[in-house]
Inverse folding.
């Protein structure tokens, strides 16, 4: 089960902004050629390489905004691992609408599918382990909701959506407050009573101090596997544990073997190439 | 010389939107710990891997929006190829402001530097050739201005910024109009008189027809190198020529050898991993 | 320590909208009389009845937006319980600016101080008990950030700021899912990994089931004091407990005596009359 | 007859903003449980205490914005004085939509009905008198249109909607201009020719001077009943008269007995507790 | 004395929108040539034909938004009738800023000065008469505040700024209600108590009926001069009188001779050619 | 064939803004009289003077935004030269909707038809010549898309839509760069590779230099007819030629006789009086 897809009242303003960015003052060629008679056309979204498809609900939202006469037919389920040449969706409607929505739809679909595909690769490495993969706040500005959704489609979990989702106490906060204990105390007093607190730790002493404060999550930052294993044992389920810092596809299994609950990485977003997808048109009624 | 950096009246609304996305209802930890006394701090933007830095003017814009007391000092020039461990900028000001701007600034800086770095790799392959590298409209929604700016910082040129920048007549348009000649005629009559027209061609016949129409740019789409070479000769400088379609770092030189003017690729944006950059803090006046 | 005051990048768009609502096409009388010569004036914010002052930082933000020459001097600390006739702030600057900001500033200050005053009355009843008072999502549309801030100034804690702050599983959700266990399982799988879950319960069986699911908060909804006491004992600190439903100033102490951690009420916002505050002007340089 | 309900082109942007405030990044629990299968449900808006219902047209607007499949059935007329336990409206549609609109709809309905109920109490005291009750600009920021609408539903009349609706010349304006005569002259010359002017007066001399200026409304500010009676006689129908300043439910009849045309009070908004209303759900097709 | 110039909180959003319209993605030539070194320059606003200057305060607002280093020096007073070749203002600052603001500033200044010039011509025809010239709601969409301001600079008065400024009861309203009396009664009951009512009349019977209703303004629509004179006599000062319908510069004096209070015309806006103004640059520090 | 009409995603935000400008807080008279029962009505758009109709598609867009039940029937084609008394369109639907959209629709229709009518007069003077008429960036702020559309309906062509559409190198740019050659070189390096460059010239030497730079368009600014003729011969088709500067209806043919490709003038917009159009109502179902 994945993170729910954003509601239109939240998503549509972004989609409109992105269409306006692509159109500027209008589509010179398409509006000139199809603006008046609006022949009907059919477009086929085709995967050109194997991967995990993510973002299919966007197709309907985007075309709904452009022209409500466009009909969208999904051919696979969101999150399916598809071979190259898979038809993932078909759209039918006025040629002008189909062409004017093409680029923004593909740009989103390709990027999100790239993220889901990369996430799936990470998640598969963790199969059989109880450790879960989570994302970070390293997301492309403007796309956080959608990129985190794509991580979830790929099989990852979501960490904070923003600075208000939980209080993350990092080294600078601790330095400023004087100690983990003091930082947690002061933060606790100023945030919603059920907002979770996560503390970043680098040593076992810090882990112990965070544990004493009763925080919800303890981040084990840049620890060696043996140290992390000790930390996980020390915590013993009294807080969630999150491994963070420079973890790669190669080191994933070693880190998971420490028994840590969560491994966070930005790589599923920041190192994911776009999946190659095209939209092939056929004018149906000229 | 690069594409000019966007004016604040155009850029600031996007930056504000992105900060709001990251903050949600506020920075729980930072506002709790630094909200009242606002100690001063210093932050150092540090490259953690070698690459081309792009986006430095963003640092000042973002911190100006958050707190006008923050001072930004750039340590390298935009577009410099830097070794790992280069300090690219230093910011000084209230700790709360520095921390609240950290993530959005880094997300942009890392992504744009990744694009510039990838572009530089492509551009260097074309050194000694008269062929130029250009981008496409495959850009991350919301980031087109900045990603195209980053391509330019990396040494590439910019193609259309939107569907209104020029009229690009593609296969579907030609099909719908009946012929290249008819499509160009109809488009020409409905666009600003100085808007350029580019026509997508796949055969020498199409090239000849486009040439006859007096279009400004002829795209040679997915042609083999020998065919492209013939096309370039046929055009003989009477229109700009643009090679497009599945060109990779490996095939770049072969394509350039055909004498084509421009090679367009989306890979400098869609396949560029983020460059690793961190912001290291030091509280200066607790 | 209170909830941090919202950052200008979040608050200013609201303040601008509210000033525009009050001004329409402009202040007919003030702009006619003070628009050209801008005499200087002084305004004194005066409490006309005893209460807790909340919203003082708004004065500077609002006048900063109207005219940056206005200077604001706070005379008491945010959250102070003041007697009638207390001067809480003085503003100095162009008469036109002072008058055009008067109504919006007072409307906010009076309403927020009313909320803080009412909250303080509730909180004082809980003195000596370990039970904390929290607010709800029953807030005036558009004012949630500020009203929750005012509750915190009055001494209360904040519950969720929105539907995304935590997952609250209510009776309808349970009914739909078939059981608390199933509902928690499905929700857990689709929300950020550190998002807390709260479950609404009405019976001890439900309390036990929620407890078994390991949720963070158990709401004891409309329970009698004896039943609530049993529930609190059953939970025994393994989850936070929240009493909710029809609790009044009169029943507050009885409920607290059950040992429940939190009592939530909307009354501090929905039943709080505005505190009477005026802005008295003196033109200083005609 | 009441003030017309705001047109959707004016109201919808506010409603969308308020829904976004409540949802943040989405409804964690509801979207997780109802996001995919969208069972149908029925919701009943139930008055839990006696009062005047106001804001019923909001129900349809809000649910129309969330999901156009929701159907709304009003069971009583706007402005009806209802006993406790009255069903005022029923909504039917996808469970997710009903739940996601619940809180904002209720917050508005409860607050506006509270205002209408309080206004009705004031207005009833004036029954048999020719004096009308009017509101002021002391309204909750962002809600002025709706709160003034609610006052009208309760039986009151509306004063200015904003600073541009009429020119209100207050003591500070008079002081600055030197005299009522000079102030009226200067304001008259700079406002739309049919914009009414109201002057605030505290003495009979001021009343006489305002009368001489031919203003449309004379405010009798903080006058004793005998003084006000003299003022009303002096004015003798040559201008509208408005009593203002500290008038309570208790003093209302005494003031009306002076023969004044209008009594303005902010109490119908600033001292009105929310009316208790709930939305009871029943899932109809699980 | 003129209508006050709009406050920046109301005007700036429009100015920003208009600059963005003119710039699109940026000023290709200027940003390329002046973007980096920002030489200083001086610009002179020069009237190229005689006329009334209006809109001078816009110069400072626009340049303030583009670059706060630009300094503006006004050389004549707003509303001055200037001969050709008058320098009305000088701006100094970075060349890029001056050039990027040129077109929008001139477009506004030329149009508003055109309106003021045309208005002055009408107003001068009424010299010696007690009749005033007023504008209408026939204004260019988006520019109503500024065009009405320009009418006032030219010597005219402003009629309604919008449909909410007063209730104008026209023939269709009367038809729908059954009679003027019924229409006025129903409107009166649903509008703010001090909102004026104007009724459109075409016959003396209608004038009499409107008079009986006690409305504030009676419009004498498309009446012949003799009929209008009778109407004015009938009304005898008990309501304002407004002549409307097809009045031209030529018929102005005849209409004024009827003794009517106001003559409304859209011609000062809809038939006013732009005044020719240029901005001459001199780069001061290359 | 004309410039395509703007897509709703681009146009609707402007239309909504303009309706809100006209309505303010609502239509006092219409909402009071037609707000509740919504009788049906019919409105006829009637030309009251001869001219070219432009903007007909706006009628449907505006009424669609106000009330989707309104039906629009166009009676003539966009761009038709109509005699006085032509019915150009009929609208049917709720009376309230028809009345509330009247003013904004007429203001746009009258202004755009005025522009199209004036343009047609200019264009007709060029009949038989190969010279085309083009517009400029002297457009009413906020209305550029629509005014340029209206020019095209009248038979003119469009020049740049904004500063990003092409790089126009003017005298100040040349001065700053040192020479046309240097200016073109620097601009060429910083703009999209297919963006055209136009250079402003005043002498044959400048024309020759611009020609040598290979620019797309050479503007012949304020040249005498004989000089312009020489310039056109010199250029000999190697660049587009544009005559600019003080050209009037009277001098149009002389300028065209020089063989120049394009003549640009702002007069079709800045000197065009609105065409007189009315909307006549008939209530159909009272």
């Amino acid at each position: 089960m994945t993170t729910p897809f954003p509601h239109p009242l939240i998503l549509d303003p972004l989609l409109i902004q992105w269409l306006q960015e692509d159109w500027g003052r209008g589509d010179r060629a398409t509006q000139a050629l199809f603006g008046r008679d609006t022949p009907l056309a059919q477009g086929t979204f085709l995967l050109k390489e194997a991967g995990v498809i993510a973002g299919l609900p966007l197709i309907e939202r985007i075309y709904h905004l452009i022209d409500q006469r466009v009909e969208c037919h999904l051919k696979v389920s969101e999150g399916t691992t598809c071979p190259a040449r898979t038809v993932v969706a078909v759209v039918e409607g006025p040629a002008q609408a189909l062409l004017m929505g093409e680029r923004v739809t593909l740009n989103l679909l390709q990027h999100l599918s790239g993220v889901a595909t990369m996430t799936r690769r990470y998640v598969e490495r963790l199969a059989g382990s109880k450790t879960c993969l989570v994302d970070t706040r390293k997301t492309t500005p403007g796309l956080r909701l959608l990129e985190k959704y794509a991580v979830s489609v790929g099989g990852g979990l979501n960490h904070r959506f923003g600075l208000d989702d939980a209080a993350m106490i990092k080294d600078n906060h601790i330095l400023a407050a004087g100690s983990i204990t003091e930082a947690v105390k002061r933060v606790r007093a100023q945030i919603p009573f059920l907002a979770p607190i996560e503390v970043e730790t680098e040593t076992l002493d810090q882990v112990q101090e965070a544990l004493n404060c009763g925080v919800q999550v303890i981040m084990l930052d840049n620890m060696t596997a043996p140290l992390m294993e000790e930390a996980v044992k020390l915590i013993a389920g009294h807080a969630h544990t999150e491994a963070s810092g420079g973890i790669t596809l190669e080191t994933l299994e070693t880190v998971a073997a420490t028994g840590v609950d969560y491994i966070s990485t930005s790589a599923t977003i920041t190192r994911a190439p776009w999946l190659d997808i095209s939209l092939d048109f056929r004018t149906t009624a000229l």
Summary: The CA atoms of residues 95 and 203 of chain D lie 61 Å apart. DSSP finds eleven helices and twelve strands in chain D.
